[in-house]
């Protein structure tokens, strides 16, 4: 679904007008309209700051349905071991090669695979347009969506996407849920999913999903200041009774603190590494499976954690995963290396041997080939001088407002902060950044320097106490 930012209290606006904007919901059914009103006008609804609505034509919706059926059931590619490649790789490269300037600049036609270089986030961040298929046919039929992401390596990036790509996430979520014996049932008049954040500021909206009978989709912020009363959070969620709740470990941990009576069929944890202890706590508290998804904005959901197999099950039939060494050579079974991706389901941003910065090893399990010992991104909390904890995304909101290529923030066990910036600004810009950091965390000792580390720098770190 396309998303359109609008300022102000959208919940209050909806209650006054009683009607969603026709341009945002051109195909809304009567059942969908009734549900939208119920989600927005509920007396305990949160502050909705934005608008989002289905932006796909009937033909595009049907194409999504066909793709999602295929992706839910198609076999996965072979593991990216030395000499092993998916059957579709050569044709996939040939079709895209001349349309991606960064690839075409390597050679007139696709290179032999052993000579194919790897790419990394720094390449995309430095010149994104050279890695985008800007003339893809779907780009002319759908409005462009750009997702801003900072990532673990500290290279800010806007990921170009389409409404159909956002809709296609559903196929891989369904594939992950099927591994746990869960098949989606929510339809007209019901809420399919609540996307829960826990931030100072958060993109929030209420919408419907036409690919699932106009069931409800709500993105909300669990931070108490976004609600009339803090106790409204549990009451509203109980009233919506969503089939699924999705969030990151920080927001799901907050969810577990609420006196929620509703039991969703599953929780989906994304964006950050989920500890085993928190997963077990969430499952016991909400009496449902918790799916830990390995995902990133550049590639979407890539794998799901299988507790019984103690490994990660890949999810995308069109995503070829290699484990490579520092020279970009594919490693054999059992050897730890960097997760590197080729393919993907975003037609505007096909990936070619894209280094993720995360590490794992290929292993064989009873269910097939899986990824083990995955070292991914972990949530980092910073402590204020008042002893309160702050999600690292709050620092992202501060720093991404400035023209920085990269940044890294480290907090010592004493509370002292080391801020590294690339480029290192001077004058009022640097003073504004430092003042903003002190406003968030308090007057800790602060040292600022230039960031000169290589591409694998971790954006947020903190000493354990």
UniProtKB/TrEMBL annotation:
* Taxonomy, superkingdom: Bacteria
Q: Which InterPro entries match?
A: ANL_N_sf, CapK_Type1_Caps_Biosynth
Q: What is this protein called?
A: Capsule biosynthesis protein CapK
Species this chain originates from: Ideonella paludis
Lineage, uppermost ranks? Bacteria, Pseudomonadati, Pseudomonadota, Betaproteobacteria, Burkholderiales
